[in-house]
Amino acid sequence: MKRNTFTCIAIVVLLSTSMGAFAERIKDIASVEGVRVNQLVGYGLVVGLDGSGDSTNQAPFTQQSFRSMLKQFGITVPQDASFQTKNVAAVAIHAELPPFAKPGQKIDITVSSIANAKSLRGGSLLLAPLKGIDGNVYAVAQGNLIVGGFGAEGADGSKVTVNIQSVGRIPDGAIVERSVPTNFGDNGDIVFNLHTPDFTTAKRLADSINELVGPDVALPLDAASITVRAPQNAAHRVDYLSLLENIEVDPGEAAAKIIINSRTGTIVVGQHVRVAPVAVTHGSLTVTIKENVEVSQPNAFGDGGTVVVPDSNVEVYEESGPMFNFSPGPTLNDIVRAVNEVGAAPGDLMAILEALKQAGALKAEIMVI
User: Fold this and answer.
1) 292-343 pLDDT, tens per residue?
2) Which domains does the chain have, with CATH numbers?
3) How far apart are the first and last CA of the chain?
4) DSSP 12-56
5) DSSP 3-state assignment of 327?
6) How many CA atoms lie within 13 A of 201 on its CB side?
7) How far is 24 from 196, CA to CA, in rounded Å?
8) Alpha helices in the chain (DSSP H)
9) CA dist 231 to 23, 183, 237, 239, 337, Å?
10) Strand 266-269, strand 12-14: pairing
11) Distance between CA 119 and CA 42 in Å, rounded?
12) What is the DSSP letter of 298?
């Protein structure tokens, strides 16, 4: 008899169990300070929908926006006049403005319904400004939406929906109108910021640059930043960065960590996880209680009455929990092999790892996400 109390799937990822550190380009592990994307957001109207737009009662701002748009074209709608906007949907628009984007270039945008429109399929976004955090307009968006979702609904209320129909994208749907100023061309040093801060990686990155360019050119400031002396001319800085970003560096190995996602049953064990000498046993106890109802009938000439008598049946089942022993300093392979031999489920493995940590035998940090 085998009982599985978890339906989730456990994935134990072996992070470079036998392989050493491998070289990566600087452009893959770090970014240049000041060279970044900027978020843009806007509001607009999608028209041309096949009756799947916003309802007038639940989305009054859609009607208000539609009135304002018509007024810009010299069409005045009386305030007391009511009209249907089933073919119109109010949407939020967001995009990322790449670094060094210049006026006239195009960027992709994402359009999302903000009211109760059922679908944006077949709609067209009308001209809408996209603003940055400073309130300035950096791009204008317009175009026909591409919606990946699909849905069908019957007269009896039954419906089938595939993916999301209230979100769409427009490739090259916005034109950049204003560029974001950067300090890249300013005189001064270039600073590389590591995507994953690590003292060892910062030192190795600086050493790699110094070996190629010259001594004391690069200096690590902390675990995340490395400053590099650079040419003063902007054109020369581009050539210089093209050389630096392709230098290969051996990143420092990550600290010993175990990541546990209790919602999905995913368990990630790092390469440097070690366990001190310890013996582990793990089992489970199952108690099953069944309530049966029996009827007690008196004899034909007895004075008693018919009564209902409960009959409880209690069964106890305990799964065998074989004990396994960890020798001094076992590797990741040893840990995974030992746990697999006892057939531990995802929840059981989580309990074992937490118990090892509490006992002081697990030489790693446990992070529950």
Assistant:
1) 656 666 666 666 666 666 665 555 455 555 555 555 555 556 666 666 665 6
2) 38-176 (no CATH), 183-249 (3.30.70), 257-368 (no CATH)
3) 33
4) EEE-SSS-----EEHHHHEEETT---EEEEEEEEEE--SS-S--T
5) coil
6) 25
7) 13
8) 26-29, 60-72, 199-213, 234-244, 332-341, 346-358
9) 27, 14, 6, 10, 55
10) parallel
11) 19
12) -
Q: Which residue has the tokens 């737009």?
A: 53
CA distance 112 to 180: 25
355: Cα within 13 Å, side-chain hemisphere: 11
**Helix, strand, coil content of the chain in percent (nearest 5):** 20, 35, 45
**Burial tier of 142 (Cβ tally within 10 Å: 0-12, 13-18, 19+):** middle
CA distance 222 to 202: 7
How many Å apart are CA 194 and CA 197, to the nearest integer? 6
3-class DSSP assignment, residue 123: coil
Beta-strand relationship, 124-131 and 278-281: unpaired
Radius of gyration of the chain from its Cα atoms, rounded to whole angstroms: 33
> Distance (Å, rounded) from C-alpha 107 to C-alpha 93?
12
User: How far is Cα 249 from Cα 207, in angstroms, rounded to an integer?
Assistant: 9
CA quadruple 213, 215, 216, 222: dihedral positive or negative?
positive
pLDDT in tens, 235-280: 888 899 999 999 999 998 888 888 888 777 788 887 778 777 767 6
Whether the Cβ atoms of residue 44 and residue 116 lie closer than 8 Å to each other: no
Q: Phi then psi for 201, rounded to 5 degrees?
A: -65, -40
At residue 234, the 3 state secondary structure works out as helix
